[in-house]
């Protein structure tokens, strides 16, 4: 049984172990104990705070093997980026160069350094132990965050976005960085990657060009990877696409990976989730008695708490409401109810588990 819960101070050794496996380009999971400790402290403060509107809160969740207590993954939500330090992206748009005398009309793509996502919610830090990167666990870790967002909407912005890791080779070399960033930073990609994860990002504005970068001036190799996700990120990218996220012309300033976004209310898990009343019982018996029910199946479910948030995947059975105005009931086993820290009659939020994405 796997349960998602808020990260705790005691999870630091497990977080260090996960960070040691993270490849170059995973800026949100640095190999730095002090930074990881600060991440936990910020998350604990966020979960314990009364929040009426989104601010600089950072929420980190871990995936735990419930029976052993082993932490095998982490994911995060940053409520509103750019509130304490600038958050930069490249916006790609077309510049028109024309000459009526020469009858030439050229439309040239260019990259503009911007802070357009300031105040938006960032979906970040999805990483699982290499031995547990199975689709079901990766999907649970990614989507359970949206159930938390749906239940606590006031804590998050109207726009939600994610920066997908861009293309790098086996040595951690980024074609986009080599063609652009290296000329202004005088360092390799891995060093710049480390700096963005452990220090204030103001140096980006100080060193990056403030004028548009014309895409045709980049190397052919760099142009080929603009807005292209790394192979290892295709599953995560597909999960978010299935949730309604789409590219609106933004890319990461370091590796050129795609930035995708969705309005919070339109995220599939948010829009299709509902509140249910807990009924503790034998799910298999219920299914046998009503095998024709279209609402028997696998669900992602969470309790309605903040600091004691718990989420998991269950095989369940929905029972229709017996009283007008009351929610339908979701049947849980005693073990599942205990893991979610709920009792008979409590409310939970749940959504039918979607299909896994098709990797192109």
From TrEMBL:
Gene3D superfamilies: 2.40.40.20. Keywords: Acyltransferase, Arginine metabolism, Transferase. Its EC number is 2.3.1.109. InterPro entries: Acyl_CoA_acyltransferase (IPR016181), Arg_succinylTrfase_AstA/AruG (IPR007041), Arginine_N-succinylTrfase (IPR017650). The keyword Iron-sulfur does not apply. Pfam families: AstA. It is an enzyme of class 2 (transferase). PANTHER family: ARGININE N-SUCCINYLTRANSFERASE, N-SUCCINYLARGININE DIHYDROLASE. This is Arginine N-succinyltransferase. It comes from Pokkaliibacter plantistimulans. The lineage of its organism: Bacteria, Pseudomonadati, Pseudomonadota, Gammaproteobacteria, Oceanospirillales.
């Amino acid at each position: 049984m796997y349960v998602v819960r808020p990260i705790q101070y005691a999870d630091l050794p497990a977080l260090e172990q996960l960070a040691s496996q993270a490849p170059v380009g995973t800026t949100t999971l640095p190999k730095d104990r002090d930074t990881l400790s600060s991440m936990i402290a910020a998350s604990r403060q966020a979960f314990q705070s009364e929040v009426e509107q989104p601010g600089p809160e950072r929420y980190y969740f871990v995936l735990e093997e419930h029976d052993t207590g082993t932490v095998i993954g982490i994911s995060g939500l940053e409520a509103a980026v750019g509130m304490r330090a600038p958050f930069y992206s490249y916006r790609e748009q077309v510049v028109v160069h024309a000459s009526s005398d020469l009858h030439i009309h050229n439309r040239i793509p260019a990259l503009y350094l911007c802070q357009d996502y300031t105040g938006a919610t960032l979906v970040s830090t999805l990483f699982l132990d290499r031995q547990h990167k199975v689709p079901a666990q990766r999907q649970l870790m990614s989507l359970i965050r949206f159930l938390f967002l749906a239940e606590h909407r006031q804590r998050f912005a109207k726009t939600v976005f994610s920066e997908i890791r861009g293309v790098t080779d086996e040595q951690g070399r980024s074609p986009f960085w080599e063609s652009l960033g290296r000329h202004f930073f005088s360092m390799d990609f891995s060093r710049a990657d480390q700096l963005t994860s452990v220090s204030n990002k103001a140096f980006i504005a100080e060193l990056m060009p403030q004028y548009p970068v014309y895409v045709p001036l980049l190397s052919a190799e760099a142009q080929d990877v603009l807005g292209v996700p790394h192979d290892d990120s295709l599953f995560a990218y597909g999960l978010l696409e299935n949730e309604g996220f789409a590219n609106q012309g933004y890319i990461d300033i370091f590796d050129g990976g795609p930035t995708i976004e969705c309005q919070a209310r339109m995220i599939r898990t948010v829009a299709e989730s509902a509140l249910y009343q807990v009924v503790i019982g034998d799910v298999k018996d219920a299914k046998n008695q009503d095998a024709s029910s279209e609402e028997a199946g696998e669900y992602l479910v969470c309790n309605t708490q903040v600091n004691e948030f718990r989420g998991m995947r269950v095989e369940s059975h929905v029972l229709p409401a017996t009283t007008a105005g009351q929610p339908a009931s979701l049947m849980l086993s005693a073990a599942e109810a205990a893991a979610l820290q709920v009792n008979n009659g409590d409310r939970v939020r749940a959504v039918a588990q979607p299909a896994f994405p098709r990797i192109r």
